[in-house]
C-alpha cells in the first residue's frame, strides 16, 4: 500500500534526492535503470534474497527493474554491492563491524555498498538503506507499508555504520509469513519458523516439537512415559500425576529422568544443527512434586523456604529446584552441543534468583515481568510499589546472569484487548534493561493486533536496535506514515488514551474486573473518541480511511467494555439494580464492535445474577443434575488440569453484621472451604458447618461469614472456591442476615 509522506519528523536520516543534481549517485533516471545490484559469486540464499528485496523495492518506487548479477559479471552502470567484501578503508568503526548483525551503508560517486558483519547484517543493511535513503516504512504486519513513488532515484553521499544493542530481539512470529516478513524488515531476529532460516540469515527459531515456553510436558510426554515411569511425574497429595501444560510438573530427582530429558534435547540439536535454542521450562502453574527426594533437595538448596514474590499468598520457593534440574540437563547437553542455548523461565514461585544454584552459561534465565507488575509505569519507577519490587528482582538476576532473557507481556492475553497505553512505559523498560546489561528481549505478542497496540510494536523493534532513540519521535513517525492527513488527530487520539491512565496514577496488571474500575479518566476516553471521529473526516485516501476505521472499531469495543466494568463495580459497591442493567447493556454494545471470549464470558456472567441468584463468573454452561439446573465451577471441564476456580458476589444487606451463606451443591462435588476477598490481594478462608456426603443428591452447604472478614465498603462480597481441576456443581446461592455478631 502506498501513502504519501507529509512533513514527517523521521527517526532516520533521509539522504535521497529526486532531481539528479551534479555529484549525486543516480540509480534510476526517468524510470530507467542506471545501476546494477552485485552479489558475490556463489552467494548464500540470504544474500540472494536481500538482492531480490532491493530490486523489488527499487522497482516499486521507480518502475525500473534494476538487475541482480554476480560479481565478475558486471558490464556497466552504477554498482550497488550487496554483501560484498569491503576494503578496510571503508570501515570506520571496527568495534561495530565485529558484530555479526552490524550494518554498513556507504554511498559515494563510485556507487553504493550495502554490507554487514554477516549475511544477515547485509540483509538488514538493505532494509535500513530503503528506509534512510528512499523513505520506505514497514509499519505493521499485513502489508501495512509506505513506499514512495519517484521516477528518478539520485542519492547524496552518505555513510552509516550501526549494530543492534540487543543480541536477541524477538516477538513470537511462529509460522505466520506476514509477521515474519515485517519483523525481519524492522530488524528483529526471531522467533521465526525453521524453514525461514535460510532466507533470514539464520535467525532464531524454536523447535517444531517444543514451540512454546512451557515444555516439560512435551519433553517427557505422559502418553509415552507415565505407564512405564510413573516415578518421573510429580507426587501431589500422595498420588503420581501425569504431566500436562497446566498444573502438574515432573519429579526432578527421579532416577533416570535427567538422562532421559537431556537425551531428548540432544536429539533435537542432532537432527537440526542450525537450531540454536530451545526452552526447557516447567509447565504452567504449580503442581510441584512433594516426594521426599524433591523436598530434601529444596531443604538442601534453599532451606525449604517460601516466597510471596508477586503472589496472593506465600508458596514454597522452587527456584533452586528448577535451575538445579536445568543445570543437570545443561551439563549433559553441553558435552555434545556446547554452543546451544537452553531457556528456563523465572516465573511465579520460581521468579526470584535461586539461593545457591547459579545458571550455567548455556542456561538462559527467562525472567517474566508478570508478578509483581504495574504496566501503568515503567519498571524503574520507584513510585510504583509492584515495580519497585520487580526491579529489585530484575537487578538481582542481572548481577548473577548477564545473559538473562527478559519476557515482556507486550500483548497481555488476560487484558481482554482493552485500551492498554504501554508504549512509553515499555520503551522506558527497554532503555532500563540495556542500562542494566540485559540485552535479550522477548515480546509475548503474535503481532496480530496493531489497531489495539498502535505504534507499540514498531517502537519496541526500533529501540531494541538503538535504545538511545526518542520513543515519542519514533511513535510520531509511525503515526504520520500510518494515517497520512489524519495523523494529527490520531496523535491526539493516542495521547488522550495515554492521559486517561496516566492522570489517575492507578496501577494495573492482568485482571480487568479488578483493575479497570477507577483506572481510566472517562473524559479523556471521550476526547479520544472525538479525535477518532475527526480523523475519519480528515483521512483522504482509502488506506487511511480503512486504518482509522479499524482503530475505531477496536476502541469502541474497549470503550463500552470499560464503561460496563465500571457500571458493574458500582453495582457491587451499592447494589443498585439499575447499574447491573446498564452494565449488561454496555457489555452487549461492546460486543457489537468486537468479540473476545473472556469479555463475552464476562457479559454472560452478568445474566447469571438472575439464574444462580448471585452475580457469578468462572462457571461453565448450564446443565441438569438430579432434576435441577446447575453450573459447574470448572468452566473448561474435568481432566484438563485447569484451575476450576469460580467466583460469585453475595449481596450482603449490612457488611458490618455477620451473614449466613447457603449454597445448594451436588453431593458428589469437591467443595470444602470457601474464601472471601477482604481487601485487595487478601483472601480469608471460611469452613462450612458440615461436609458434603459424596452422594448423588442435592445438599445445602452453610457458611457463616463474620463481619470482620467482609469488605466494609461493599454491599456485594466477593467469594471464590474450587481450584485444582475440582468439579463443583451449584444450583443456587442465598445470603441471609444473622443479626449481631
Low-confidence stretches: 1-22
First-to-last CA distance = 70 Å
Beta-strand residue fraction: 15-25%
| Number of helices in the DSSP assignment | 20
Structural class of the secondary structure composition? alpha/beta
Largest sheet: 6 strands, mixed
Task: Characterize the structure shown.
The protein is of the alpha/beta class. It has 4 domains: 148 residues, Chitobiase/beta-hexosaminidase domain 2-like (Chitobiase, domain 2, 2-Layer Sandwich); 299 residues, TIM Barrel, CATH 3.20.20; 102 residues, no CATH class; 125 residues, Jelly Rolls (Sandwich), CATH 2.60.120.430. The protein is built from 20 helices and 32 strands. It has a 6-stranded mixed β-sheet with strand order 5-4-6-8-7-12. A 6-stranded parallel β-sheet has the order 13-22-21-20-19-16, covered by helices on one side. Helix 18 runs antiparallel to helix 19. The chain is globular, with a radius of gyration of 29 Å. The N and C termini lie far apart (70 Å). The N terminus is likely disordered.
Short description:
By secondary structure, the protein is of the alpha/beta class. It is built from 20 helices and 32 strands. Strands 5-4-6-8-7-12 form a 6-stranded mixed sheet. A 6-stranded parallel sheet has the order 13-22-21-20-19-16, covered by helices on one side.
Amino acid at each position: 500500500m502506498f501513502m504519501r509522506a507529509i512533513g514527517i519528523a523521521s527517526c532516520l536520516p533521509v539522504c535521497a534526492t529526486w532531481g539528479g543534481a551534479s555529484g549525486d549517485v543516480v540509480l534510476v533516471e526517468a524510470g530507467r535503470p542506471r545501476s546494477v545490484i552485485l552479489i558475490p559469486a556463489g552467494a548464500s540464499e540470504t544474500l540472494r534474497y536481500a538482492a531480490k528485496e532491493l530490486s523489488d523495492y527499487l522497482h516499486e518506487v521507480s518502475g525500473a527493474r534494476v538487475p541482480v548479477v554476480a560479481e565478475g559479471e558486471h558490464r556497466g552502470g552504477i554498482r550497488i554491492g550487496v554483501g560484498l567484501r569491503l576494503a578496510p578503508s571503508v570501515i570506520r568503526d571496527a568495534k561495530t563491524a565485529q558484530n555479526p548483525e552490524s550494518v554498513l551503508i556507504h554511498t559515494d560517486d563510485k556507487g553504493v555498498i550495502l554490507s554487514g558483519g554477516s549475511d544477515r547484517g547485509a540483509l538488514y543493511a538493505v532494509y535500513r538503506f530503503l528506509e534512510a535513503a528512499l523513505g520506505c516504512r514497514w509499519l505493521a504486519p499485513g502489508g501495512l507499508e509506505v513506499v514512495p513513488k519517484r521516477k528518478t532515484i539520485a542519492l547524496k553521499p552518505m555513510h552509516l555504520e550501526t549494530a543492534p544493542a540487543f543480541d536477541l530481539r524477538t516477538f513470537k512470529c511462529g509460522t505466520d509469513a506476514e509477521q515474519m516478513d515485517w519483523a525481519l524488515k524492522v530488524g528483529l531476529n526471531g522467533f521465526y519458523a525453521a524453514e525461514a532460516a535460510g532466507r533470514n540469515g539464520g535467525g532464531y527459531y524454536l523447535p517444531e516439537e517444543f514451540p512454546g515456553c512451557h515444555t516439560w510436558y512435551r519433553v517427557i510426554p505422559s502418553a509415552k512415559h507415565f505407564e512405564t515411569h510413573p516415578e518421573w511425574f510429580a507426587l501431589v497429595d500422595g498420588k503420581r500425576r501425569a504431566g500436562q501444560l497446566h498444573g502438574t510438573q515432573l519429579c526432578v530427582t527421579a532416577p533416570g529422568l535427567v538422562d532421559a530429558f537431556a537425551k531428548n534435547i540432544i536429539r533435537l540439536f542432532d537432527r537440526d544443527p542450525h537450531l540454536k535454542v530451545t526452552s526447557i521450562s516447567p509447565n504452567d502453574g504449580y503442581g510441584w512434586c512433594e516426594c521426599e527426594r524433591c523436598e530434601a533437595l529444596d531443604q538442601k538448596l534453599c532451606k525449604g523456604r517460601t516466597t510471596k514474590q508477586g503472589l496472593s499468598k506465600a508458596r514454597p520457593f522452587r527456584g533452586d529446584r528448577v535451575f538445579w534440574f536445568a543445570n543437570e540437563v545443561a551439563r549433559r547437553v553441553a558435552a555434545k552441543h556446547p554452543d546451544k542455548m537452553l531457556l528456563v523461565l523465572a516465573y511465579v514461585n520460581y521468579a526470584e534468583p535461586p539461593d545457591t544454584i547459579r545458571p550455567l552459561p548455556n542456561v538462559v534465565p527467562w525472567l517474566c515481568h508478570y508478578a509483581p507488575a504495574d504496566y501503568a509505569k515503567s519498571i524503574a519507577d520507584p513510585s510504583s510499589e509492584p515495580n519497585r519490587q520487580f526491579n529489585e528482582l530484575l537487578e538481582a538476576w542481572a548481577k548473577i546472569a548477564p545473559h538473562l532473557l527478559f519476557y515482556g507481556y507486550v500483548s497481555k492475553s488476560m487484558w481482554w484487548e482493552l485500551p492498554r497505553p504501554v508504549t512509553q512505559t515499555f520503551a522506558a523498560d527497554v532503555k532500563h534493561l540495556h542500562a542494566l546489561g540485559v540485552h535479550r528481549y522477548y515480546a509475548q505478542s503474535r503481532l496480530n493486533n496493531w489497531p489495539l497496540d498502535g505504534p507499540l510494536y514498531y517502537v519496541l523493534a526500533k529501540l531494541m536496535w538503538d535504545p538511545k532513540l526518542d520513543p515519542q519521535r519514533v511513535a510520531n513517525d509511525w503515526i504520520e506514515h500510518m494515517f497520512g492527513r489524519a495523523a494529527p488527530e490520531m496523535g491526539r487520539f493516542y495521547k488522550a488514551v495515554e492521559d486517561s491512565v496516566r492522570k489517575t496514577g492507578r496501577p494495573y496488571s492482568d485482571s480487568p474486573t479488578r483493575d479497570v474500575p477507577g483506572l481510566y479518566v472517562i473524559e479523556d476516553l471521550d476526547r479520544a473518541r472525538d479525535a477518532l471521529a475527526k480523523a475519519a473526516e480528515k483521512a483522504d485516501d482509502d488506506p487511511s480511511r480503512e486504518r482509522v476505521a479499524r482503530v475505531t472499531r477496536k476502541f469502541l469495543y474497549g470503550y463500552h467494555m470499560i464503561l460496563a466494568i465500571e457500571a458493574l463495580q458500582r453495582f457491587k459497591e451499592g447494589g443498585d439494580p439499575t447499574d447491573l442493567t446498564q452494565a449488561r447493556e454496555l457489555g452487549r454494545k461492546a460486543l457489537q464492535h468486537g468479540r473476545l471470549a473472556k469479555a463475552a464470558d464476562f457479559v454472560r456472567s452478568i445474566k447469571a445474577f438472575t439464574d444462580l441468584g448471585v452475580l457469578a463468573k468462572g462457571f461453565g454452561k448450564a446443565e441438569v443434575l438430579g432434576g435441577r439446573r446447575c453450573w459447574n465451577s470448572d468452566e473448561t471441564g474435568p481432566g484438563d488440569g485447569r484451575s476450576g476456580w469460580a467466583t460469585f458476589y453475595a449481596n450482603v444487606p449490612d457488611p458490618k453484621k455477620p451473614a449466613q451463606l447457603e449454597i445448594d451443591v451436588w453431593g458428589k462435588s469437591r467443595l470444602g472451604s470457601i474464601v472471601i476477598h477482604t481487601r485487595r490481594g487478601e483472601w480469608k478462608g471460611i469452613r462450612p458447618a458440615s461436609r458434603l456426603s459424596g452422594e448423588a443428591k442435592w445438599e445445602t452447604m452453610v457458611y457463616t461469614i463474620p463481619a470482620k472478614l467482609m469488605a466494609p465498603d461493599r454491599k456485594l462480597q466477593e467469594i471464590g472456591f474450587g481450584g485444582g481441576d475440582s468439579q463443583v456443581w451449584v444450583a443456587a446461592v442465598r445470603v441471609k442476615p444473622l443479626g449481631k455478631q
